[in-house]
Amino acid sequence: MPSLKDLKNRIASVKSTQKITAAMKMVAASKLRRAQEQAEAGRPYAERMGRMLESLAANVSSNGQGPKLMTGTGKQDVQLLIVISSDRGLCGGFNGTIVREARRQIARLEGEGKTVKVLTVGRKGRDQIRRTNPKAVVFSYEDIGRKRLSFSEADTITAKVLEMYEAGEFDVASVIYNKFKSAMTQIVTVQQVIPFAVSGDEAAAQDSGELKAMYEFEPDEEQILADLLPKNLSIQVYRSLLESAASEQGARMTAMDSATRNAGDMINKLTLTYNRTRQAVITKELIEIISGAEAI
Amino acid sequence: MADKVEFELVSPEKLLVSQPVDMVVVPGSEGNFGVLAGHSPFISTIRPGVIDIFEGERIVDRIFIAGGFAEVTETRCTVLAEQATNLNDLDRAAVEQEIKDRGEDVEDAKSDTERAAAESRLAIARAKLEAITGATAH
């Protein structure tokens, strides 16, 4: 049976842990709100970019030749996975699920006889993937979006990816990230970014077919598309970073919320034991005094 | 001039401007073009330069952008730009310093791709200065 002093210390330590987790939950909640706002603000650009791309792609694909970013290299031998995780832990299953999915993809692609290269964003993902697939990780970024995620950070990642693509270091690139659904749920998403997949929705294409045919282009379609595709890649990377940042804060908030609650339960239980022990000690002392008095 | 064009300036981080205007002049990569209501739909790339927003015959706003894309339809003009600054917020001394810095970058560049990137940044900074001197000359 633990002594009274031990119990007291234990309660004090759990209480201070609870204070920390409660504070972290609050911080995560406010960061989550900011991340959500940012994701919201980035939406118009992505939407308009998508609209322009679709009308362009419809025009270009009809005459066969397109830029390499859209048509691909014609091979699928080397696959690049861009894994987006977080720099910090204590966010529940956030990094775990991402890494598990990444490993699953690596195993699947290698099973198909392909070479897999991994580019990681975030310290946690890098460390965990490096443990199982030390050779696969070709490049990693840390401290992305530490203060506030900016578009130029997404641009540096994209520049690196494009440089590798131009050098023929990979054929297909996909991004693996946590898509934000709600503070409680994040969905692990794998999205192919190179070659760019035109949302090949036949019906939708026909619906707006008339509209598209009307656009004039200056300079010609290929030229614009060649400029637009790298930008679009940046946007997609930026968006997945935003989604991931929001997911991270959401996951941390939920994790810290349950940690705070668990700490509360634990304090209750410990307090109960403490009080019982205290009573027992008092009773014992009384018995000792009484039996001592009787003996005289 | 009863009709107005819905002008939108969007950066990846947020929607910067969204307002109906009488006319906008956009620095397209193959020459400036003005957009009035009822313009035929087209898509163009943009070189670094200044967007002029007109209310009636008067310029009400001048915004410097460092390249991007424009999509024009009969009722709308959407500009996608990465960097946009109101011309009034640009500081001449700061821009001159930037040109100097970028010029050094070009000289320091080690590879061709690095040089090309540095040169395009220099071009943007030069266009900025041009925009400022142009504005004060008015």
From TrEMBL, chain A:
<keyword id="KW-0139">CF(1)</keyword>
<dbReference type="GO" id="GO:0045259">
    <property type="term" value="C:proton-transporting ATP synthase complex"/>
</dbReference>
<keyword id="KW-0375">Hydrogen ion transport</keyword>
<comment type="similarity">
    <text>Belongs to the ATPase gamma chain family.</text>
</comment>
<keyword id="KW-0406">Ion transport</keyword>
<protein>
    <recommendedName>
        <fullName>ATP synthase gamma chain</fullName>
    </recommendedName>
</protein>
<keyword id="KW-0472">Membrane</keyword>
<keyword id="KW-0066">ATP synthesis</keyword>
<dbReference type="GO" id="GO:0005524">
    <property type="term" value="F:ATP binding"/>
</dbReference>
<keyword id="KW-1003">Cell membrane</keyword>
<dbReference type="GO" id="GO:0042777">
    <property type="term" value="P:proton motive force-driven plasma membrane ATP synthesis"/>
</dbReference>
<dbReference type="Pfam" id="PF00231">
    <property type="entry name" value="ATP-synt"/>
</dbReference>
<dbReference type="GO" id="GO:0005886">
    <property type="term" value="C:plasma membrane"/>
</dbReference>
<dbReference type="GO" id="GO:0046933">
    <property type="term" value="F:proton-transporting ATP synthase activity, rotational mechanism"/>
</dbReference>
<dbReference type="GO" id="GO:0009579">
    <property type="term" value="C:thylakoid"/>
</dbReference>
<dbReference type="InterPro" id="IPR000131">
    <property type="entry name" value="ATP_synth_F1_gsu"/>
</dbReference>
<dbReference type="InterPro" id="IPR035968">
    <property type="entry name" value="ATP_synth_F1_ATPase_gsu"/>
</dbReference>
<comment type="subunit">
    <text>F-type ATPases have 2 components, CF(1) - the catalytic core - and CF(0) - the membrane proton channel. CF(1) has five subunits: alpha(3), beta(3), gamma(1), delta(1), epsilon(1). CF(0) has three main subunits: a, b and c.</text>
</comment>
<keyword id="KW-0813">Transport</keyword>
<dbReference type="InterPro" id="IPR023632">
    <property type="entry name" value="ATP_synth_F1_gsu_CS"/>
</dbReference>
<keyword id="KW-0997">Cell inner membrane</keyword>
<comment type="function">
    <text>Produces ATP from ADP in the presence of a proton gradient across the membrane. The gamma chain is believed to be important in regulating ATPase activity and the flow of protons through the CF(0) complex.</text>
</comment>
TrEMBL record, chain B:
<comment type="subunit">
    <text>F-type ATPases have 2 components, CF(1) - the catalytic core - and CF(0) - the membrane proton channel. CF(1) has five subunits: alpha(3), beta(3), gamma(1), delta(1), epsilon(1). CF(0) has three main subunits: a, b and c.</text>
</comment>
<dbReference type="GO" id="GO:0012505">
    <property type="term" value="C:endomembrane system"/>
</dbReference>
<keyword id="KW-0139">CF(1)</keyword>
<keyword id="KW-0375">Hydrogen ion transport</keyword>
<keyword id="KW-0406">Ion transport</keyword>
<dbReference type="InterPro" id="IPR020546">
    <property type="entry name" value="ATP_synth_F1_dsu/esu_N"/>
</dbReference>
<feature type="domain" description="ATP synthase F1 complex delta/epsilon subunit N-terminal">
    <location>
        <begin position="6"/>
        <end position="84"/>
    </location>
</feature>
<dbReference type="GO" id="GO:0045259">
    <property type="term" value="C:proton-transporting ATP synthase complex"/>
</dbReference>
<dbReference type="InterPro" id="IPR036771">
    <property type="entry name" value="ATPsynth_dsu/esu_N"/>
</dbReference>
<dbReference type="Pfam" id="PF02823">
    <property type="entry name" value="ATP-synt_DE_N"/>
</dbReference>
<comment type="similarity">
    <text>Belongs to the ATPase epsilon chain family.</text>
</comment>
<keyword id="KW-0066">ATP synthesis</keyword>
<dbReference type="InterPro" id="IPR001469">
    <property type="entry name" value="ATP_synth_F1_dsu/esu"/>
</dbReference>
<dbReference type="GO" id="GO:0046933">
    <property type="term" value="F:proton-transporting ATP synthase activity, rotational mechanism"/>
</dbReference>
<dbReference type="GO" id="GO:0005886">
    <property type="term" value="C:plasma membrane"/>
</dbReference>
<keyword id="KW-0813">Transport</keyword>
<comment type="function">
    <text>Produces ATP from ADP in the presence of a proton gradient across the membrane.</text>
</comment>
<keyword id="KW-0472">Membrane</keyword>
<protein>
    <recommendedName>
        <fullName>ATP synthase epsilon chain</fullName>
    </recommendedName>
</protein>
<dbReference type="GO" id="GO:0005524">
    <property type="term" value="F:ATP binding"/>
</dbReference>
<keyword id="KW-1003">Cell membrane</keyword>
